[in-house]
Predict the 3D structure of the following.
Amino acid sequence: MTSTKKDPILVVVQLSGGNDGINTVVPYGDPHYYDERPSLGIPAEQVLDLDGHAGFHPSMGPMKELYDQGNVAVIQGIGFPNCNRSHFRSMDVWHTCEPDILATEGWLGRTIRDIDPGKENVLTGVNFGRGLPHALALPGVPVASVGNLATYGLLTGIEDEERMTALDTFSRIYSPTLGGTFTYDYLSQTGMDAFKGADILKTVPDKYESSVEYGDNTVARYVRMMSQTIVGDVGTRILYTTSPYNSFDLHGSALTLHASLWSDVSRYVQSFFDDMREHDMADDVTMLIFTEFGRRVRDNGSGTDHGTGGCALVVGNQVKGGMYSEYPSLDPAKQADGDLQFNYDFRGLYSTLLEDWMGLDAKPIVNGSFEKLDLF
């Protein structure tokens, strides 16, 4: 287990829609790349070289700076068996670690349960954004979903005196009662968890000062809220956010849109770690950036269609930066029906994060034993 000042924290950023891994980590040294990407190929002289064979998209300058500092691990050829290129099914697999069956329990829900089995802290896991990602869902495990820390709470849109009366009623409604049904007990607990979480999180913004500036886009604002929550020291160990719905699903106009998306991602990731360093907390945090699948090897003229194998990034001060696994060949004879042949199971990456970073037993969380990486 890596030694850190405080309990290790995992931040997860989900790139929704299926990020084009081939034009994120560009295999400019593969002679087949420019044959397969006649419209979307990135000129070799523009690629931000990583290892003489592949490099970051030219819009990823801030990410390249982090890589050069030794703080970014690039996991190549990541995926899972029998991917059917469906957004919903593929994300479900990444969320539940079950490629062969439909499952209900999220891997991070199980992680939160392991970290805090007695549910002593209703903010062990926090999602930033609308709804609750399946990865965090597990009956009986409290997870807060926050859209705006500054206004997060219950009944915040009404006057103080009326609000106090309403909150008192809310509290009495959701207080546990003897002899309640399972459904009522579940709703009561969920209500009380939300009540407690709102009361704690409203103190977070006042504890935070920073000279770091974040971009003015939705995810950058959520990532800044993550920083506020970590600095606020409310015991949160798992923090999650998602890019806008299917924003990386670029079937067209990919040349400009993909560059813009990764420019945003690279900037807010760099801002986050600048913020953590300013608060002397960078050693305590690791970030996972993933997507549900990669894209087809050959472009469609203006974009790319759904594929299978892709890439993931792990970022942090404690991370051993570098290139991991092997970049799959773009040779048509070695493709998997027009896709990259994935060569590393994502559950091995989860296992690495859970065991070597979080200090947990990964097997019951990811449903088996998988090859780990030497990331820490």
Q: What stands out?
A: Residues 254-278 form the longest helix (25 residues). The longest strand covers residues 72-79.
